[in-house]
Write a structure and sequence with these properties.
It is a multi-pass membrane protein. It comes from Novosphingobium resinovorum. Its main location: membrane. By secondary structure, this protein is mainly α. The protein has two domains: 60 residues; 66 residues, no CATH class. Helices cover 78% and strands 0% of the residues. It contains four helices and no strands. Helix 3 packs antiparallel against helix 4. The longest helix is centred in the first third of the chain and has 28 residues. The radius of gyration is 16 Å and the shape is globular.
């Protein structure tokens, strides 16, 4: 699969993941669950959804899931989120505190890191089978 097609699929998975995450938050808030638990549950569901869809559809990995593959995915998620926070901190220092510009830049860095690390570290061809 081409890099462009994989990136497009990754983006579509992200959009779907966002919709699912918001639905989980909405449902839990309606059930009286607080903001923090609803947010945590949403991220939990989102990480699982992201793993399955990116593995099978974006990067077309087949076969059984190895525990090392899951560990790599969670590591990539954490590193990408760290890059997000780093960019957000930088943007705040540049005068973009409480700004959609700062948040947008942070989201772009997160998405780029998550895609590239997923493609080359988590779901690289033949890697999951090892």
């Amino acid at each position: 699969m081409t890099l462009t097609m994989a990136a497009l699929r990754f983006g579509l998975v992200g959009v779907l993941n966002t919709i699912v995450g918001l639905a989980v938050i909405w449902a839990l808030l309606r059930l009286g669950v607080g903001d923090y638990p609803a947010n945590a549950c949403s991220y939990g569901v989102g990480v699982c959804c992201s793993f399955v869809l990116n593995r099978t559809w974006t990067f077309e990995v087949r076969g059984p899931v190895a525990s090392t593959e899951v560990a790599r995915f969670l590591t990539v998620f954490a590193l990408s989120y760290g890059a997000n926070l780093g960019m957000l901190t930088l943007m705040r220092g540049l005068g973009f505190a409480q700004s959609l510009i700062g948040q947008g830049a942070a989201m772009a860095v997160y998405s780029a890191c998550f895609f590239l690390l997923s493609r080359h570290f988590v779901f690289a061809p033949g890697r999951a089978a090892r």
